[in-house]
Amino acid sequence: MAQPEHAAALVRLARQDLDALVALSALPPIADAILGFHAQQAVEKGLKAWLASLGQDYPLTHNLSRLLTLLDRGGADVERFRSLDALTPYAVQARYEEGDPDAEDALDRPAVVAEVTALLERVASLLGDQET
Asked: Are the C-beta atoms of 36 and 90 separated by less than 8 Å?
């Protein structure tokens, strides 16, 4: 798959995780670990789509800081999204260990939804008129 088409496909997949995040965030009994997982997945796919849109390959990693660093080194302005790297522990740790990765700090659900949405909107805007 060519890079632009691959990037658009990743954005569509990221939006599915965002949809789950939005729907589940309104339900108080849903654990932060579940919400964090969907947020992390949406961000991971969004960052990989951004890299693909720039014609860059990306590693098979869940580490959001690493992906942000690759974008930064490639000349992308990612500073606004740097705080999203805090979601990295939700990729694996929250799925295989009981409890939330950072149980002392509950996820600020509206803020996480807003930040993930902003990232995906940024990446979609980079893709221009492609269907995302």
From this structure: yes
pLDDT (tens digit, 9 = 90+) per residue, 93-113? 656 666 555 555 788 999 999
Quote the DSSP letter at residue 99. S
Q: Could you give the CA distance from residue 132 to residue 126 in angstroms, rounded to a whole number? A: 11
pTM of the model as a whole:
0.90
In tens, the pLDDT along 10-33 reads: 999 999 999 999 999 988 889 898
Which amino acid, one-letter code, is at 65?
A: S
Give the residue among 79, 83, 49, 80 at the shortest CA–CA distance from 64.
Answer: 83
Q: Where are the domains of the chain?
A: 3-127
Instruction: Give CATH superfamily name and number for 3-127.
Output: Nucleotidyltransferases  domain 2 (1.20.120.330)
* Separation CA 111–CA 92 (nearest Å): 22
Torsion of CA 96, 120, 128, 12, to 10 degrees: 40
